[in-house]
Amino acid sequence: MLDQDQLDQQASKSAAKETSSETIANRASAQLARVEELVEHAAASFTSVRPELTIVIPVYNEPETIIEIVQRVHRLPISKQIIIVNDGSTDMTGESLDALAHLDNVEIIEHDINRGKGAALQTGFQHARGKYVIVQDADLEYDPIDILKVIEPLRRGTSDVVYGSRYLESAQQDPSRVHRFGNWLLTSLSNRLTGLQLTDMETCYKAFRRDVLNQIHIEQNRFGFEPEITAKIAGQQVRIQEVGVSYHCRSWKEGKKIGVKDLINTLYCIVRYNWFKS
After folding, report:
1. N or C: which end of the chain has fewer CB within 10 A?
2. What is the pTM of this model?
3. Tens digit of pLDDT for each residue in 17-28?
4. Can you tell me the distance from the alpha carbon of 263 to that of 223, in angstroms, rounded to the nearest whole number?
5. Residue 195 placed within a domain
6. Which residues contact 221 (CB under 8 A, 6 or more apart)?
């Protein structure tokens, strides 16, 4: 027969074993929950760190159109990062951007002063995380529905850079003969020096594999970005393709910002970045 002390000792040991088993089970459960949490966090982080597409939108004094453009871009059925660079706007554009800040995958970056489209794109490219990167203007001349069409050759792996041409399928989309002639002149001169056969060097829609874009150092802060990036891409010996896109031209009265000085600078940049390569 066991005396009372022995019975108490056995009871104590049994209770200790149960407590130990319970502690181990609790720890295992907590560790499992932690592992599940880490897996979910990793999956979410991977999605946010590496979307398929980054859309960079430079904006300067476009308080009305920027909302419509961002909403259209946001509806595209693709994993995306939308970077809006407010290039020192002096009107109500900032308030319009505040109304968009709640949207998922939208990042807004501010320039204290107006530095130009090229400078805004440089800022946006530095923050891009997507496998592919495309430029979208903040006005309504280019319809974001064409973005998926432009990046399709990148997704198929048949091109490294794609330009969305306004003139490939229907030059009459641009009603201005002066504008059409100017674009033809600049594109033809660029083609002569780069060896490319583009129809629209000046297009907004330029899409890149991000690893290709990261190899290019951009210097131009205004519209000289277009001939500069074209010349430097031609020098990379990458696969370049054009696809046709829709275009809704607006006048200078409606807010078009490119001017005569930009035309002269574009001519300079075509020569500068083709004949005097750094």
Report:
1. N
2. 0.79
3. 666 666 665 676
4. 9
5. yes
6. 115, 116, 117, 118, 119, 122
